[in-house]
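Request from the bench team (R.T.):
"We need a structural guess for the complex before ordering more zinc ion. Sequence and SMILES attached. Just send the tokens back."

Command: build protein-zinc ion structure.
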Amino acid sequence: MYLALPSYSGRFATPPVPPAVRKSIVLAGFLGVGFALLYPARYEPSPWPPQLEMRVPFEPTAFPSAGRTYLAYELHVTNFTNDPLTLRRVEVFDADAPVLKPIAVFEGQQLDAVLRAVGVQPPVEEGSNAHPLVAGGGMVAFMWVAFETGAHVPNKLRHRVLTGDAVAEGAVIGTHHTELKVLRSPVLGADWLASDAPSNDADNHHRRGIFVYDGHASVSRRYAIDWVQLENGASFSGDARDKRAYYSYGKPVVAVADATVVTARDGLPDNVPGHNTPGHEGFSPAVPITLDTVAGNTITLDLGSGQFAYYCHLQPGSVRVKVGERVKRGQVIGLIGDSGDAREPHLHFEIANSPKLMAGEGLPYLIDHFSVKSASGWESRTHELPLKDMVIDFGR
Ligand SMILES: [Zn+2]
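Reply to R.T.: structure attached below.
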């Protein structure tokens, strides 16, 4: 669950400029058309509001990266009627704007790319723009809205969903829900790949990682990053099944801020690395993967303000802190390992709003300073959250 990298063979080509940026659906101000132009005549006013519930379980916090500002959140829709309906289009508005113009629109393939059915829904008909939603059925739209530098980021968003014959409106949310903490990096040095870092790709197992805990569906991994150190574009050299062949293995992890230790789990064994890809068949974890073992050896730090930093898959015997201990920003607290649900050594790092693993909601944060590899060299970044597939130098 923590590391299921589909096309991840253990060797990496030099990643391009973050694809997440190009895949972002719509930029602010993209559509300059008014309401009257957007809706065909079939949307006759109904005497009853459409019985389509729209809900955002956890409000987003806008975060900057690579010259843009992003909002990532989930819009849950539920068909409360006894009849099937179809979803055709999802629109996002600035709820405070005097004239309602969509700032983001998802339809056709773009809508397809962000929707995940809850349970089984009929397939979309070939050539159709409509997503069937059975009576009582639900869908989650993984929303990802990007704003260009300087564009106004609304304080509140409002949503509109077009079905086969109706327009449902609602789900008004704020866009600055939590404090964006400025942290130092959890690892040191250069050539760290931000694997499955924030993006809206359908195969991003962090972004799509809805998990129900105590009856509440949340995404604690929403902004998680699997830090993998590379050399010459590869994560290891030599025997792919030797954990010590991986550049990440045994590298120190450090406290991202002054904090208090709330979890210091040690003693779980490392796995033999493997990806179930040609040459790496037959990955089997060293212990059965359960909620108790999935994160492997883990340190959790209480950063204050209800925010908790998770360091997962650490090396057995490497955890250097105890529960209740105060740690200093930059202090080495453990070493990267391959324990829990890890196919190869890496650090799974995330910030969530609960000290219970996988029970909270993932929160964005900023790293104080780093450099990103680009075609022309290294670009300096300040107070940003890395995005998927960036290769980063954190310095010492
Ligand atoms: Zn992970």
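Two things stood out. The two ends are 31 Å apart (CA to CA). Residues 90 and 390 are 30 Å apart (CA to CA).
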